[in-house]
Amino acid sequence: MGYKTENINEIENIDASEIFEKAKTTKPFKPKIAWANVLGFLFLHLACLYGLYLFHRAKFLTLAFGLFLMHLSGLSTTLGAHRLWSHRSYKVTLPLKLILLFGFTMAGQNCLWIWVRDHRQHHKYSDTDGDPHNSTRGFFFCHMGWLMVQKHPEVIAKGRQIDMTDLNADPLIMFQKRYYKTLYTLCAVVIPVLIPWYFWNEDIINSLFICFFARYVLQLHLTWCVNSVAHLFGTKPYDKRISPVESTFVSFFGLGEGWHNYHHTFPWDCHAAEFGKHFNLSSRLLTLLERWGLAYDLKVVSKQMMINKITKYGDGTHPVF
After folding, report:
1. What is the DSSP string of 130-189?
2. Model confidence at 31, in pLDDT bands (50, 70, 90)?
3. What pTM was estimated for this model as a whole?
4. CB 241 within 8 A of CB 253
5. Which 3 state secondary structure label does DSSP give 92?
6. What is the model's pLDDT at position 21?
Protein backbone atom coordinates (compact mmCIF):
# COMPACT_ATOMS: atom_id res chain seq x y z
CA MET A 1 0.00 0.00 0.00
CA GLY A 2 3.07 2.25 -0.17
CA TYR A 3 3.82 2.42 3.58
CA LYS A 4 7.46 3.15 4.46
CA THR A 5 9.01 0.77 6.98
CA GLU A 6 11.31 3.47 8.35
CA ASN A 7 8.22 5.30 9.70
CA ILE A 8 7.27 2.18 11.62
CA ASN A 9 10.76 1.96 13.08
CA GLU A 10 10.57 5.62 14.17
CA ILE A 11 7.30 4.94 15.96
CA GLU A 12 8.74 1.91 17.71
CA ASN A 13 11.74 3.93 18.92
CA ILE A 14 9.64 6.70 20.55
CA ASP A 15 10.07 6.77 24.31
CA ALA A 16 6.60 6.77 25.91
CA SER A 17 7.98 8.57 28.97
CA GLU A 18 8.93 11.55 26.77
CA ILE A 19 5.33 11.90 25.60
CA PHE A 20 4.08 11.66 29.18
CA GLU A 21 6.49 14.30 30.42
CA LYS A 22 5.57 16.64 27.57
CA ALA A 23 1.88 16.23 28.35
CA LYS A 24 2.53 17.09 32.01
CA THR A 25 4.29 20.33 31.09
CA THR A 26 1.40 21.51 28.85
CA LYS A 27 -0.37 24.11 30.94
CA PRO A 28 -4.18 24.43 30.79
CA PHE A 29 -5.50 27.72 29.43
CA LYS A 30 -6.04 30.29 32.18
CA PRO A 31 -7.67 33.41 30.75
CA LYS A 32 -6.57 36.83 31.92
CA ILE A 33 -9.23 39.16 33.25
CA ALA A 34 -10.04 42.12 31.00
CA TRP A 35 -10.23 44.70 33.77
CA ALA A 36 -11.32 47.52 31.48
CA ASN A 37 -14.41 45.50 30.53
CA VAL A 38 -15.07 44.53 34.15
CA LEU A 39 -14.97 48.15 35.30
CA GLY A 40 -17.08 49.20 32.31
CA PHE A 41 -19.79 46.67 33.14
CA LEU A 42 -19.67 47.69 36.81
CA PHE A 43 -20.28 51.31 35.86
CA LEU A 44 -23.10 50.37 33.46
CA HIS A 45 -24.88 48.29 36.11
CA LEU A 46 -24.62 51.01 38.75
CA ALA A 47 -25.99 53.51 36.24
CA CYS A 48 -28.80 51.06 35.39
CA LEU A 49 -29.76 50.78 39.07
CA TYR A 50 -29.89 54.54 39.34
CA GLY A 51 -32.03 54.64 36.21
CA LEU A 52 -34.47 52.18 37.78
CA TYR A 53 -34.57 54.36 40.89
CA LEU A 54 -35.53 57.36 38.75
CA PHE A 55 -38.64 55.60 37.44
CA HIS A 56 -40.75 57.18 40.19
CA ARG A 57 -39.94 60.74 39.09
CA ALA A 58 -39.92 60.29 35.32
CA LYS A 59 -42.89 61.05 33.09
CA PHE A 60 -45.05 58.18 31.88
CA LEU A 61 -44.18 58.97 28.27
CA THR A 62 -40.48 58.52 29.07
CA LEU A 63 -41.07 55.09 30.62
CA ALA A 64 -43.22 54.06 27.66
CA PHE A 65 -40.59 55.35 25.24
CA GLY A 66 -37.88 53.37 27.05
CA LEU A 67 -39.99 50.21 26.75
CA PHE A 68 -40.52 50.92 23.06
CA LEU A 69 -36.76 51.28 22.56
CA MET A 70 -36.18 47.95 24.31
CA HIS A 71 -38.57 46.22 21.94
CA LEU A 72 -37.18 47.96 18.87
CA SER A 73 -33.58 47.04 19.70
CA GLY A 74 -34.59 43.57 20.90
CA LEU A 75 -36.62 42.71 17.81
CA SER A 76 -33.86 44.11 15.60
CA THR A 77 -31.51 41.65 17.30
CA THR A 78 -33.80 38.62 17.12
CA LEU A 79 -35.19 39.25 13.63
CA GLY A 80 -32.19 41.06 12.20
CA ALA A 81 -28.81 40.03 13.60
CA HIS A 82 -29.99 36.55 14.50
CA ARG A 83 -32.55 35.14 12.10
CA LEU A 84 -31.87 37.30 9.03
CA TRP A 85 -28.13 37.89 8.95
CA SER A 86 -26.70 35.02 11.04
CA HIS A 87 -28.89 32.22 9.65
CA ARG A 88 -30.20 33.78 6.42
CA SER A 89 -33.59 32.21 7.16
CA TYR A 90 -35.54 34.82 5.18
CA LYS A 91 -35.05 37.91 3.01
CA VAL A 92 -36.10 41.54 3.45
CA THR A 93 -36.76 44.66 1.43
CA LEU A 94 -34.48 47.68 1.77
CA PRO A 95 -36.77 49.70 4.11
CA LEU A 96 -37.01 46.84 6.63
CA LYS A 97 -33.29 46.18 6.32
CA LEU A 98 -32.52 49.80 7.27
CA ILE A 99 -34.89 49.67 10.25
CA LEU A 100 -33.36 46.43 11.54
CA LEU A 101 -29.85 47.77 11.09
CA PHE A 102 -30.74 50.97 12.95
CA GLY A 103 -32.42 49.04 15.78
CA PHE A 104 -29.53 46.62 16.13
CA THR A 105 -27.03 49.49 16.28
CA MET A 106 -29.15 50.92 19.10
CA ALA A 107 -28.91 47.56 20.91
CA GLY A 108 -25.17 48.17 21.35
CA GLN A 109 -24.03 44.55 21.08
CA ASN A 110 -20.98 45.28 18.96
CA CYS A 111 -21.07 45.81 15.20
CA LEU A 112 -23.29 43.46 13.23
CA TRP A 113 -20.35 41.76 11.48
CA ILE A 114 -18.76 40.66 14.77
CA TRP A 115 -22.11 39.63 16.28
CA VAL A 116 -22.90 37.40 13.29
CA ARG A 117 -19.43 35.87 13.24
CA ASP A 118 -19.63 35.02 16.94
CA HIS A 119 -23.10 33.54 16.57
CA ARG A 120 -22.21 31.41 13.57
CA GLN A 121 -19.18 30.23 15.49
CA HIS A 122 -21.39 29.45 18.51
CA HIS A 123 -23.53 27.16 16.37
CA LYS A 124 -20.64 25.48 14.57
CA TYR A 125 -18.61 24.79 17.74
CA SER A 126 -21.39 24.88 20.32
CA ASP A 127 -20.26 24.25 23.92
CA THR A 128 -16.66 23.48 23.02
CA ASP A 129 -13.51 25.55 23.48
CA GLY A 130 -14.24 27.07 20.08
CA ASP A 131 -17.56 28.50 21.31
CA PRO A 132 -17.21 32.17 22.40
CA HIS A 133 -19.69 31.64 25.28
CA ASN A 134 -19.15 27.95 26.01
CA SER A 135 -21.82 26.91 28.55
CA THR A 136 -19.66 24.09 29.95
CA ARG A 137 -17.57 26.80 31.65
CA GLY A 138 -20.45 27.70 33.95
CA PHE A 139 -23.50 29.96 34.12
CA PHE A 140 -21.72 33.26 34.77
CA PHE A 141 -19.20 32.69 31.99
CA CYS A 142 -21.76 31.96 29.28
CA HIS A 143 -24.05 34.72 30.53
CA MET A 144 -21.59 37.63 30.60
CA GLY A 145 -18.22 36.45 31.91
CA TRP A 146 -16.98 35.62 28.42
CA LEU A 147 -16.93 39.36 27.75
CA MET A 148 -14.71 40.00 30.76
CA VAL A 149 -11.82 37.64 30.07
CA GLN A 150 -9.25 36.89 27.41
CA LYS A 151 -10.58 34.71 24.59
CA HIS A 152 -9.65 31.04 24.51
CA PRO A 153 -7.08 30.37 21.73
CA GLU A 154 -9.56 28.01 20.08
CA VAL A 155 -12.13 30.80 19.86
CA ILE A 156 -9.62 32.98 18.03
CA ALA A 157 -8.50 30.17 15.72
CA LYS A 158 -11.99 28.93 14.89
CA GLY A 159 -13.30 32.47 14.43
CA ARG A 160 -10.94 32.96 11.50
CA GLN A 161 -12.56 30.00 9.74
CA ILE A 162 -16.13 31.33 9.78
CA ASP A 163 -17.47 32.17 6.32
CA MET A 164 -18.42 35.87 6.27
CA THR A 165 -18.39 36.44 2.50
CA ASP A 166 -22.10 37.34 2.41
CA LEU A 167 -21.68 40.16 4.93
CA ASN A 168 -18.42 41.29 3.34
CA ALA A 169 -20.34 41.83 0.10
CA ASP A 170 -23.02 43.98 1.75
CA PRO A 171 -22.05 47.69 1.64
CA LEU A 172 -24.54 48.70 4.36
CA ILE A 173 -23.22 46.15 6.83
CA MET A 174 -19.62 47.06 6.10
CA PHE A 175 -20.49 50.76 6.52
CA GLN A 176 -21.96 49.95 9.94
CA LYS A 177 -18.83 48.00 10.82
CA ARG A 178 -16.47 50.79 9.75
CA TYR A 179 -18.32 53.59 11.57
CA TYR A 180 -19.84 51.54 14.40
CA LYS A 181 -18.67 53.68 17.33
CA THR A 182 -20.03 56.87 15.81
CA LEU A 183 -23.29 55.22 14.75
CA TYR A 184 -23.70 53.60 18.17
CA THR A 185 -23.26 56.94 19.94
CA LEU A 186 -25.86 58.50 17.68
CA CYS A 187 -28.41 55.64 17.59
CA ALA A 188 -28.11 54.34 21.16
CA VAL A 189 -27.34 57.48 23.17
CA VAL A 190 -27.98 60.78 21.42
CA ILE A 191 -31.34 60.10 19.70
CA PRO A 192 -32.98 58.09 22.56
CA VAL A 193 -31.92 60.65 25.19
CA LEU A 194 -32.77 63.82 23.28
CA ILE A 195 -36.26 62.80 22.11
CA PRO A 196 -37.91 62.81 25.60
CA TRP A 197 -36.02 65.95 26.56
CA TYR A 198 -37.03 67.85 23.40
CA PHE A 199 -40.57 66.62 22.70
CA TRP A 200 -42.12 66.35 26.18
CA ASN A 201 -39.68 68.32 28.32
CA GLU A 202 -38.32 65.38 30.30
CA ASP A 203 -35.43 66.06 32.66
CA ILE A 204 -32.22 65.27 30.74
CA ILE A 205 -30.86 63.18 33.64
CA ASN A 206 -34.02 61.06 33.75
CA SER A 207 -33.83 60.61 30.00
CA LEU A 208 -30.17 59.62 30.05
CA PHE A 209 -30.38 57.08 32.86
CA ILE A 210 -33.71 55.55 31.81
CA CYS A 211 -33.64 55.64 28.01
CA PHE A 212 -29.98 54.74 27.74
CA PHE A 213 -28.42 53.11 30.82
CA ALA A 214 -31.41 51.18 32.21
CA ARG A 215 -32.76 50.27 28.78
CA TYR A 216 -29.34 49.19 27.53
CA VAL A 217 -28.33 47.00 30.46
CA LEU A 218 -31.72 45.30 30.79
CA GLN A 219 -31.66 44.56 27.07
CA LEU A 220 -28.18 43.06 27.38
CA HIS A 221 -29.26 40.67 30.13
CA LEU A 222 -32.28 39.50 28.16
CA THR A 223 -30.00 38.67 25.25
CA TRP A 224 -27.43 37.00 27.50
CA CYS A 225 -30.12 34.73 28.99
CA VAL A 226 -30.32 32.98 25.61
CA ASN A 227 -26.65 32.00 26.00
CA SER A 228 -26.96 30.95 29.65
CA VAL A 229 -30.45 29.99 30.86
CA ALA A 230 -31.47 28.51 27.49
CA HIS A 231 -28.38 26.29 27.51
CA LEU A 232 -28.65 25.01 31.06
CA PHE A 233 -32.22 24.82 32.44
CA GLY A 234 -35.05 23.20 30.47
CA THR A 235 -36.20 20.30 28.34
CA LYS A 236 -34.92 18.79 25.09
CA PRO A 237 -37.92 17.53 23.12
CA TYR A 238 -36.20 17.77 19.74
CA ASP A 239 -32.65 16.55 20.38
CA LYS A 240 -31.42 15.33 23.75
CA ARG A 241 -27.85 14.98 22.44
CA ILE A 242 -27.18 18.72 22.56
CA SER A 243 -27.09 21.15 25.48
CA PRO A 244 -29.55 23.91 24.35
CA VAL A 245 -32.98 23.59 25.97
CA GLU A 246 -36.54 24.89 25.70
CA SER A 247 -37.03 27.76 28.16
CA THR A 248 -40.43 29.38 28.61
CA PHE A 249 -38.88 32.08 30.81
CA VAL A 250 -36.37 33.14 28.16
CA SER A 251 -38.96 32.92 25.38
CA PHE A 252 -41.35 35.24 27.24
CA PHE A 253 -38.78 37.91 28.07
CA GLY A 254 -36.51 37.26 25.07
CA LEU A 255 -39.17 37.83 22.39
CA GLY A 256 -39.30 34.16 21.38
CA GLU A 257 -35.61 33.24 21.47
CA GLY A 258 -35.85 30.72 24.31
CA TRP A 259 -37.04 27.72 22.29
CA HIS A 260 -33.38 26.93 21.96
CA ASN A 261 -33.38 23.15 21.64
CA TYR A 262 -35.52 23.54 18.54
CA HIS A 263 -33.37 26.37 17.22
CA HIS A 264 -30.10 24.45 17.52
CA THR A 265 -31.77 21.42 15.94
CA PHE A 266 -33.14 23.45 13.01
CA PRO A 267 -31.10 26.70 12.93
CA TRP A 268 -32.34 27.69 9.45
CA ASP A 269 -36.00 27.92 10.55
CA CYS A 270 -37.02 31.59 10.50
CA HIS A 271 -39.31 31.15 13.51
CA ALA A 272 -36.54 29.71 15.73
CA ALA A 273 -39.26 27.57 17.28
CA GLU A 274 -41.98 25.13 16.36
CA PHE A 275 -44.40 27.29 14.37
CA GLY A 276 -47.31 28.58 16.39
CA LYS A 277 -45.59 28.01 19.73
CA HIS A 278 -46.57 30.48 22.44
CA PHE A 279 -44.34 33.37 23.55
CA ASN A 280 -42.70 34.09 20.20
CA LEU A 281 -43.32 37.77 19.50
CA SER A 282 -40.54 37.84 16.90
CA SER A 283 -42.25 35.09 14.91
CA ARG A 284 -45.65 36.80 15.11
CA LEU A 285 -44.14 40.03 13.82
CA LEU A 286 -42.30 38.21 11.04
CA THR A 287 -45.55 36.72 9.70
CA LEU A 288 -47.02 40.25 9.61
CA LEU A 289 -43.95 41.58 7.81
CA GLU A 290 -44.35 38.83 5.23
CA ARG A 291 -48.02 39.72 4.79
CA TRP A 292 -47.08 43.37 4.28
CA GLY A 293 -44.51 42.42 1.64
CA LEU A 294 -41.48 43.54 3.69
CA ALA A 295 -40.14 40.01 4.31
CA TYR A 296 -40.15 37.07 1.92
CA ASP A 297 -38.66 33.62 1.17
CA LEU A 298 -39.22 32.48 4.75
CA LYS A 299 -37.58 29.12 5.49
CA VAL A 300 -39.57 26.73 7.71
CA VAL A 301 -38.87 23.15 8.74
CA SER A 302 -41.42 20.64 7.45
CA LYS A 303 -43.68 18.95 9.98
CA GLN A 304 -42.48 15.49 8.98
CA MET A 305 -38.82 16.43 9.42
CA MET A 306 -39.62 17.79 12.88
CA ILE A 307 -41.54 14.64 13.88
CA ASN A 308 -38.71 12.43 12.67
CA LYS A 309 -36.22 14.30 14.82
CA ILE A 310 -38.51 14.23 17.88
CA THR A 311 -39.20 10.51 17.70
CA LYS A 312 -35.57 9.62 17.06
CA TYR A 313 -33.65 11.94 19.35
CA GLY A 314 -36.13 13.76 21.63
CA ASP A 315 -36.17 13.33 25.41
CA GLY A 316 -39.90 12.50 25.45
CA THR A 317 -41.08 15.87 26.76
CA HIS A 318 -42.84 17.04 23.58
CA PRO A 319 -46.54 17.52 24.45
CA VAL A 320 -47.80 15.83 21.26
CA PHE A 321 -45.21 13.48 19.72
Report:
1. TSTT-GGG-HHHHHTGGGSBPPPHHHHHHHTTS--HHHHT-HHHHHHHHTHHHHHIIIII
2. confident
3. 0.89
4. no
5. strand
6. 47
CA within 13 Å, CB half, 235: 10
**Is 314 in contact with 237 (CB distance < 8 Å)?**
yes
Distance CA(186)–CA(212), nearest Å, equals 12
Single-letter amino acid, residue 31: P
Number of C-beta neighbours around residue 81 at 10 A: 22
Evaluated on CA atoms 179, 181, 184, 185, the torsion sign reads negative
Contact 69, 211 (CB under 8 A): yes
Taking alpha carbons only, the member of 89, 85, 68 closest to residue 77 is 85
Task: Examine the pLDDT at 30 and tell me if it is beyond 90.
Answer: no
| Mean pLDDT rounded to a whole number for the chain | 91
Our separate counts of H helices and E strands in the chain read: 19, 2
Residue 246, classed as helix, strand or coil, is strand
Mean pLDDT of 50-57: 97
Whether residue 208 has pLDDT greater than 70: yes
